User: Fold this.
Amino acid sequence: MKNSDYGLDGFLSHLKGVFSITVEDSRDIIKAFHQEMNLGLAGMNSSLKMIPSFVGPPKGTEKGRYIVVDLGGTNIRIMSVELDGKGNIDVSAVSRLVIPNEMICGTGEALFDHIAEYIGHFFEKHHIGGQKTYDLAFTFSFPIEQHSLVSGILIGWTKNFTASGVVGKDVVAMLSEALKRKNMGFINVVALANDTVGTLMARRYSDPSCDMGVIIGTGTNACYPEKTSRILKYTDPGTFEEIIINMEWGGFAGLKMNIYDQALDLASGNPGMQHLEKMVSGMYLGEIARRVIVDMITRGVLFCGSNLSALSGEYTLRTEHLSLVAQGSDFFEEFGITDVSETDRMAISEACRIVSTRSARIVGVAIAAVVTWMDKSLERNHTVAIDGALFEKYPGYSDCVADMLHELLGERAERIRLELVKDGSGIGSAVIGAVAASSCRHR
Assistant:
């Protein structure tokens, strides 16, 4: 494509085509999704890991009190959660803390010691005591290969964590050892979950129609309950007829990448991996848009070819900036860009809209793929529990996901309800602990 091939309107029209996800494309994506799900459940090579979580859906009658530790990234939440057995969840104490960078980039032992110290402070601050033992549910939102409800091996760090000596190790064992070192051996880790499974479990406790959990934030993932008879790689069904499958859908490789996606992927720290996540999640949308805008400047269709240096740094444009544009504001002052014409302002707004719309449409297709896997003809109602800032805060995003479902499924899309579940990841791990305790009692 030469500079002279397109004016601004022509380029934007071209861009729409480059980022389009048509209904026809979607049907191919759904077919590929189902193939990868099948392979993943059979333990064969697949871009969907389909990791068993070793727990079934709750009935809403489970009871118990749990200390919850939710490590989602640089922030950690510690909570005291009680389930009343009637579908109600009470959070009586919460602490939100930031993990210092030296712990994120230090040794694994120091990181887990730091987490154990936070738990100790939590007990002191909220005057928790009086019991001989406490059950702890651990939400750990990094890729893990789960071997049981209380065992998970870290596959690899994400979200800028680099703590040494943790990859390939059991994170539950590391937390338990740290608690003992800090004289808190009276705390037993009874459940391990990732944030996606937690989100599903938190909603399902009070809503029996909830059968899918989705995260759409900095990263993206999904989970759903699967019949144990269909999980060929799962050799220990225990007491559950269904167990929650953590799909790790960010790795799905059945999407066509355009030149901007390919350039971003090549420059990333994990080229060839996490294709869906790189096209959908909040970590990457700003960078995709930046690459589009830089291309427009280079071609002379934007800013008369100037202001290139202001946007030359990778990941300087963030999804928060795109959200500002979607609200009718802009990010130009922050980048030292002045005297922006109305034409250029509208062009950037449209470019950002094209990038974010594709993200939402891919999410809509992926949700449709999972729901139709569970219920091919959509004969029953499905609640999809969704957490994440991109879904919650980006203007028009949730509507765009719903629109994609309607395009694909017509009136049957009314049977899919998208529900925001805030902070469900931690609460859900308490539900997981209660489900596990209940299943043990009934064995």
Summary: The first helix runs from residue 8 to 18. The two ends are 66 Å apart (CA to CA). The longest strand covers residues 75-84. The chain is about 40% helix and 20% strand.
